[in-house]
């Protein structure tokens, strides 16, 4: 299968690129710099210099492919504009065909709550509120499209778990420990990046439609994750809860409000697709894996 991939040098996109190549797919990866071109070429993809915001150029690139995956997520405030451009190009190039498209979302859009599944109603915090309308527009098109919503993505020492591993040391009633995100009672929906990459590939290969949660059944509390990071840091598992105000001051209000969500969804439709996450837990990664100091690693 000839696949067009955006974000091929990012945390999620680079894992998706590896998975696609391991499964025998040919990948064309959109890039904006020579460094990115070299990186995707080293990973086995054909680099294509293009502006992903350019609907005409993207539609032309899509026309030469059998399917596409969009994982690009710039950190310059243009996420919504980028996703709208990608959806417009996909609708133009893939509309009325059977060529599959996989779009990236995030579990935060569902807000706090336990027991939700792939099609749970949206209740997003401000940081991701824009996603809902874009995804509704995509799924209303005559396109074979799926929307993957990952949880907190971990693995290889990257992603949001670095906020736990690198949390400031503060004094608390039990001694010096790592500052928590909030009081730590909230649960995070999580997924290893390599397991997530397998879900993207399955969604593409099977022409999945609709919403797919990219989350495991783990749903650890932030306190348990912080304690694992604290043990790795030599602090004996001591953690210090923080108020909402302290967390918002440290991380910024928008990100803090998302990380304070209590989430425990069930990835029902993803599992029905054949997805079976198998990597180690985030707690283990924090205590003795890729996020731990060298001395603490197993």
Automatic annotation (TrEMBL):
One Pfam family linked to the record: NAD_binding_10
All copies of domain NAD-dependent epimerase/dehydratase, residue ranges: 175-209
Domain NAD(P)-binding: 7-93
Transmembrane segments: none
UniProt-listed InterPro entries: Epimerase_deHydtase, NAD(P)-bd_dom, NAD(P)-bd_dom_sf, NAD(P)-dependent_oxidoreduct
Protein name (database record): NAD-dependent epimerase/dehydratase family protein
Origin organism lineage: Bacteria, Bacillati, Actinomycetota, Actinomycetes, Micrococcales
